[in-house]
Specification:
Blueprint (H helix, E strand, L loop, with lengths): L18 E4 L2 E4 L3 H4 L6 E2 L17 H19 L18 H18 L6 H5 L2 H13 L14 E2 L6 E2 L1 H8 L2 H21 L27 H13 L3 H13 L3 H5 L6 E3 L4 E6 L6 E5 L2 H14 L17 E3 L15 E3 L6 H16 L9 H12 L4 H8 L7 H7 L4 H18 L11 H16 L1
Helix pairs in contact: 3-7, 5-7, 6-7, 8-9, 8-12, 9-11, 9-13
Length: 464
């Protein structure tokens, strides 16, 4: 990798800023600050003949000139002389290359959604695994002819060290087995798309199928109901009121943390039993009815009463006890609540990172620093409870808004083997016979949260 120098004037003599030889190609790689202004990675030629002082193939003069032009464009933006940021993020891949096929595949995936009337939210786009996988696949294969890609590009033995090398070991060592599993899944799906689009890899076998892409062992950790009660109590006692309400909601609704964290007042609804939220899950996009019990409803009401604010329909429900510290600058008094001349903390809607950090604090307070179970394990815990109680896989699938009944891996993930599940079938027959003779009892559940929300709306409408 080249050391960055300030001068770019002498082509072939001085090292050019941000111009380096990476993964078999010369590339112009901008910094994080440059990416914020619209600059992106630009892939160029392979270089040669001959080698430079670092032993890399000498770059072509055309590539060096292109890198210098990009540096000049950045200098214009940095100095304020360019009124609009330069855009270089759209890499132009050669026709017939993997990158060219990837861009077409992404457009086709979007067209498929639009044809069905499905428009992804920004949250769903961020959770799309294809762009995430392309961060690994693009630098390796983006400008390559698919016909030249071999299984050894993914996995091979280094002749010098005797260790496994290639894309697969690199991902596992730098990130995780889960990341490797996701990347290879996307590669295989992309290869299928390339075959369907013709002209890329017609009649060829996917080199990514020459080795197993085994999934990582699923997490098996669960929370017991009494442990969740303890977590909620500890959170409330230490003034993590938003977290306490979020945990209670996540436990009863069996929503993932990210889905629970982003619930809004406008999603609240009710049926003959009690409160629930209508939503589309961020990961699957499937409609979900997040039902609550009297216990979680009571905590949610207490939390909203404690907030003492009127909620708009689009306002997130769960807020931190204090977000980022805000300092008053100068003597303008721009932060009205800060009368002490120093700092005060402004509550913020929970983000994914802040939710995880606050949960870790409460978990340590409740069970010690050695405890490593996560908030997301509550979703699995609910599945275990339902399975032990005799619930059908179909009911579980509806509750969790996924297709657990059609996936052995999902079932293994959310229903780890337990003795209660083995004993459940014997007990379920007797329980089922009794239920058939019972009448459905009318619920005496009131709807205080809905009433509270309606009162807030009336007050808001009256103030207009």
């Amino acid at each position: 990798m080249h050391v960055i120098h300030c001068g770019d004037t002498a082509v072939g003599r001085d090292r050019i800023r941000y111009f380096l030889y990476l993964y078999g190609r010369w590339r112009w790689r901008p910094t994080k600050a440059m990416k914020a202004h619209g600059f992106g990675l630009v892939t160029m030629g392979r270089g040669g003949p001959g080698t430079d002082s670092d032993g890399n193939p000498k770059p072509r003069v055309e590539d060096q000139q292109r890198a210098i032009e990009l540096n000049r464009a950045w200098d214009q933006v940095r100095s304020g002389h360019a009124s609009a940021p330069a855009r270089t993020t759209t890499v132009r891949y050669p026709e017939g290359s993997v990158g060219h096929a990837y861009q077409r595949a992404m457009e086709l995936r979007k067209a498929e959604r639009l044809a069905k009337g499905v428009v992804w939210t920004s949250r769903q786009e961020k959770r799309d695994s294809w762009p995430r996988a392309w961060k690994w696949l693009g630098p390796r294969f983006g400008d390559c002819d698919p016909k030249t890609i071999q299984p050894e590009h993914f996995l091979r033995i280094d002749p010098v060290t005797g260790n496994a090398t290639g894309l697969v070991p690199e991902i596992e060592s730098k990130v995780s087995i889960t990341e490797r599993h996701m990347v290879i899944k996307v590669w295989r799906a992309l290869w299928n798309r390339m075959q369907a689009m013709h002209g890329y890899c017609d009649g060829l076998t996917d080199p990514g199928k020459a080795f197993a892409n085994s999934a990582p062992d699923p997490r098996q950790q669960i929370w017991l109901r009494r442990e969740v009660l303890t977590l909620v109590q500890v959170a409330w006692r230490h003034k993590f009121h938003g977290l306490a309400a979020c945990m209670a909601t996540a436990w009863d609704s069996m929503l993932s943390p990210i889905d629970a964290q982003t619930l809004t007042a406008g999603q609240a609804d009710r049926d003959g039993v009690g409160l629930f939220f209508r939503l589309d899950r961020a990961k699957t996009g499937r409609a979900a009815a997040a039902t609550l019990s009297q216990w979680s409803t009571a905590i949610l009401i207490a939390y909203l009463d404690h907030m003492g604010v009127d909620l708009l329909d689009t306002t997130p429900l769960f807020w931190t006890r204090g977000g980022r510290p805000v300092s008053r600058k100068g003597k303008t008094g721009q932060w009205g609540g800060d009368h002490g001349g120093g700092r005060h903390v402004v509550p913020r809607p929970y983000t994914k990172d802040r939710l995880e950090k606050d949960f870790a604090k409460v978990r340590a307070l409740a069970f010690g620093k050695a405890e490593r179970r996560q908030l997301g394990d509550m979703r699995r815990s609910g599945a275990v409870e339902g399975d032990a109680g005799g619930a059908s896989v179909t009911d579980q699938s509806n509750k969790m808004a996924n297709t657990v009944s059609a996936s052995n891996r999902l079932r293994k993930t959310y229903n780890p083997v337990n003795v209660a599940s083995v004993r459940r079938f014997d007990e379920a027959r007797a329980i089922g016979a009794e239920r058939l003779e019972q009448r459905a009892t009318e619920s005496v559940m009131t709807t205080p949260l809905m009433t509270l929300l309606e009162l807030q709306r009336k007050r808001r409408d009256g103030a207009k």
